[in-house]
Design a protein that fits this description.
Helices cover 44% and strands 8% of the residues. The chain is built from nine helices and four strands. The structure holds zinc ion (ZN).
Length: 192
């Protein structure tokens, strides 16, 4: 009997350490833990890109779910930039509709109105991040590099107020990037 109790106690201790290990694994960012009540929402946690993610990190859904042509252009550009001593990091890439909706709710409360929030965060049905067609790149030396060389790879800044937000515009390789919208509210794609 004593032996059995010891075994059960050992199993319980082992289970406890496994639970601790899984709750502190690298898969859960501090944001996930803070937003524990949202953890079961499909896709939300998958949309958060961990610090230090590059355009080569296939195992990160925010990178893997980007449009393949956009990702290919980003990797070519990142390789060339590395030759200039500049590293690209992905601050945000593909996002689930649920995560985009969460960002929009946060923007509305931060900026105080839906109209002001619309200057920064698109609705899930309009966001180029949700369709996998947009990426937010950092840090500033990377966006500076892209502002000079991005068009050679079909990579263009779209909004004046978002120097980190890049999309694929293949025609820019021959013709340069199209004019930049002051902010997303000027983008015809964002109109109702
Ligand atoms: Zn963006």
């Amino acid at each position: 009997m004593t032996g059995l109790v010891v075994v059960i106690a050992a199993l319980a201790a082992d289970l406890g350490s496994q639970l601790l290990a899984s709750s502190s694994s690298t898969a859960a960012s501090p944001i996930d833990i803070l937003r524990g009540e949202h953890r079961d929402a499909p896709g939300e946690a998958d949309s958060v890109v961990p610090d230090g993610t590059t355009v080569f990190d296939d195992e990160i859904p925010g990178v893997a779910n980007l449009d393949p042509d956009l990702l290919g252009a980003l990797r070519q550009a990142a390789t060339a930039a590395a030759g200039d001593g500049v590293e690209f990091y992905v601050d945000s890439g593909w996002r689930s509709p649920e995560y985009q909706e969460q960002l929009l709710r946060e923007a509305v409360s931060e900026y105080g109105s839906e109209a002001e929030a619309a200057r920064w965060v698109a609705t899930p049905d309009k966001s180029a991040h949700v369709s996998g067609d947009a990426v937010d790149i950092g840090p500033s030396d990377a966006t500076t590099w892209l502002s000079v060389h991005g068009a050679e790879y079909g990579l263009c800044q779209i909004y004046g107020n978002e120097p980190w937000h890049y999309e694929l515009r293949p025609e820019s390789i021959d013709h340069g990037c199209p004019p930049i919208y002051a902010d997303p509210t000027h983008d015809p794609r964002m109109q109702w």
